[in-house]
Each structure stands twice: as C-alpha cells, then as structure tokens.
C-alpha cells in the first residue's frame, strides 16, 4: 500500500481526486490518496507550491515529490526537500501552451488589433500581413513547451529559430544554443516568445542588448517567468519604438501589483498567468506512472536537475 498526499490549493482536490484515483488504479497501484495523512506515513506528495506543505522534514519515509507545476523555481532551493523532485510534463499543458503562444504570435503577425474596425461605420485603411515565411520568430527555450510551440509556428511557415542550453534538433526549427547562440537566435526576429525556466542563469536573458538585435517594431510574448525579461529595458524599448508591443503572462511579483507601469502602458497586454495549466486527466497519468516507477525501482521521469534549477 502506498500513501499519496495531495498538497495543492484546496479547490484543486475536486478536479484531481477522481482522475488521480483512476490513474493510480490503472497503473496497478494499491494506493491510498488523501489531502491529509500523518507525515511519517506519506510515500509520495503530489505537490503545488501554493498548497499547505513547505517543510518536507516531517515526511520521514517520503520517496518523491511530484510537482503539478512545470516551473519549479520555488521548490529547487528548499533545503528540506531531499528526495527526488519531478516536474510536470503533461501533454494537456503542452497543447494549451501551443494554442496560447500561437494565438498571441498570430495576433501580432496579422495585425489583428489594428485591422479590426470600430463599430462606427468608418472604413479605415488596414495593413495586409506579409507571409509567415517572411517573418522570423524566436523561441527562447526548447524544452517540453518551447519545442512544441516552435514546431507549431514552423508548421504555420514562420521562419522559426529556437535557443536552448544544449544542442537541439527540432523539426523545421533552426536551433541555436549556449551563450554564443543567443544573439543569432534573436537577430532580426520580429517576435520573441520566452519559454525558459526561471534560474540564476536565465535572469534578464532578454535585455536591452537582445531587444536591440530584434527587428525594429518587434513583439515580445512572455509566458515563461517574469525575471526572464529586463522590465526596465522592455519599457525603454517600447517607448523608443524598438518594440511595438509585449504580451506578458508572468511577472516578477504575482499578482502584478496595482499601479505597476505594465497595467497602464499602452503597448503592454497583461494576462493573469493563464497561458497554460496542467490538466487533471492527462497529468494524473504522468503522476501515476512516476509512482509506479518508484514502486518498481525504475528511474523517475521528468526529474529535476536541482543544480541547474529546472
Ligand atoms: P523544460 O525544462 O522542458 O525546458 C526548458 C528549456 O529551457 C530547455 O530547452 C533548456 O535547455 C532551456 N534552458 C534552461 N536554461 C537555459 C539557459 N541557461 N540557457 C539557454 N537555455 C536554457 O521546461 P518546459 O518547456 O516544460 O517549461 C518552460 C517554462 O514555462 C517553465 O519553467 C515555466 O516557468 C513556464 N510555464 C509557464 C506556464 C504559464 O501558464 N505561464 C505554464 C507552464 C510552464 P536544454 O533543453 O538544453 O536543457
Ligand atoms: C507551471 C505554471 O509552471 O503554471 O506549471 O506556470
């Protein structure tokens, strides 16, 4: 019998309880799943950082922490978390990120804001978009989410360049890597989408220098994490016209504080960290598979490299 503690926002339990129970049964596990256990009885924690657990020390027989989130920056430095930490890679989450990124890139590419006429009976001149093949789009981060987004944009015929830490091979995408590859990825890009994790190495990865390499009048779409973009440089680039607009889903402080310049800036679109969410049915299978692996003595999947921070 394995004891699985579900530790996330209480409203998530209603979403996850049935699919998780079904997935654990389907994986052939004899499991007890609950939102409360005596800590010393718990084998696995299904975990979100905004749930009740932050000190893992009392969980003396814990075998792994299974994150419901893809981004683990709030977990990697927790000194009480000494067992394997697995992040969420869920095809439901990936599909929604592809839809969100593609939607926002197409908003800019097609000039949707400019070309939708007001309901005032005035026929104003519009602009016809160039073909996607004539626009360079750069995706920073080619992991589970970035690679899928880059591929979807390539299928729409954009000239897609991607960037990762190590060498990558993604269908239809020109891949760059390492510190030396960043400038080539960004140079002349009309659009940049950020899908990197928040680590010490990625802070302000899109800075004034990088924005200056982009095509004048370019666009930034950030569903990754707030610290990836140098906010001061972004505002300066928007004010100077180097960038035309930014869509930001994530921020250094969330919720974005009232009065923050992003709320009132005419060239910024703010969305409330909704680009993509883990989906209970698909994510439950991933969690159950990791518990099955743990019990069978097989290596966990999607294990976090704590030193790299993702
Ligand atoms: P992955 O870990 O699968 O991919 C991360 C990518 O970033 C990899 O390609 C990795 O390179 C690259 N990378 C990491 N560090 C560096 C570096 N220093 N220089 C260059 N490239 C680097 O993550 P996911 O794709 O699953 O998720 C990406 C991020 O998306 C999450 O960390 C989270 O912050 C965010 N997110 C946001 C959501 C939202 O709703 N807004 C929802 C879900 C996730 P390599 O492949 O070489 O290791
Ligand atoms: C995640 C997120 O990391 O929702 O999963 O941002």
Automatic annotation (TrEMBL):
Enumerate the PROSITE patterns for this protein.
Answer: D_2_HYDROXYACID_DH_3
Using the record's annotation, list all stretches that form the D-isomer specific 2-hydroxyacid dehydrogenase NAD-binding domain.
119-275
Name by which UniProt lists this protein: Glyoxylate/hydroxypyruvate reductase A
| Listed CDD domains | GDH_like_2
Q: Which GO terms describe its molecular function?
A: NAD binding; oxidoreductase activity, acting on the CH-OH group of donors, NAD or NADP as acceptor
**What InterPro entries does the record point to?**
D-isomer_DH_CS (IPR029753), D-isomer_DH_NAD-bd (IPR006140), NAD(P)-bd_dom_sf (IPR036291)
Q: Which UniProt keywords apply?
A: NAD, Oxidoreductase, Pyruvate
Q: Which organism is it from?
A: Litoreibacter janthinus
Entry-linked SUPFAM superfamilies: NAD(P)-binding Rossmann-fold domains
